[in-house]
Amino acid sequence: MKRFTLALDLVDDPALITEYEHWHRAGNGWPEIKKSIEDAGIANMEIYRTGNRLFMIMETEENFSFEQKSKMDASNAKVQEWEQLMWKFQQPLPWAKEGEKWVMMNKIFDLHHK
Fold it and tell me: Is the residue at 110 inside a domain?
């Protein structure tokens, strides 16, 4: 199992943040999106928020690749519709590359490893 951590900012607007959280509560997301995540080899995904900053933890199968997931997403009309909806709430981190949404985070501390 591989683990990835990523970050993204939300537009700093309380009403938009409330709506974004609504879409991510159990039962409110689209089943096609959950299926696309699982089909890509993602075993578990969690998103946390502080202020307008989001933090995502992904646990994936060993053969998971972001490139393959991007290809799958690009050919899935429902995923593209979801991504368009989510851009209403999201904004790239100031250091994100052009067109980059979620930015990979670097682990800088691990209590159990030297």
Answer: no
65 falls within a domain: yes
CB 9 within 8 A of CB 93: yes
pLDDT in tens, 97-107: 998 999 999 99
Q: How many C-beta atoms surround the C-beta of residue 84 within 10 A?
A: 9
Q: Rounded to two decimals, what is the model's pTM?
A: 0.91
* Residue 11 placed within a domain: yes
The parent domain of residue 43 ranges over 2-104
Sequence-distant (6+) residues with CB within 8 A of 69 are 40, 41, 42
Count up the domains in the chain and report the number: 1
Q: CATH number for the domain including 97?
A: 3.30.70.1090
Distance separating alpha carbons of residues 82 and 99, to the nearest angstrom: 16
pLDDT digits (tens, 9 = 90+) for 22-61: 999 999 999 999 999 999 999 999 999 999 999 999 999 9
The closest of 100, 1, 105, 106 to 56, measured between CA atoms, is 105
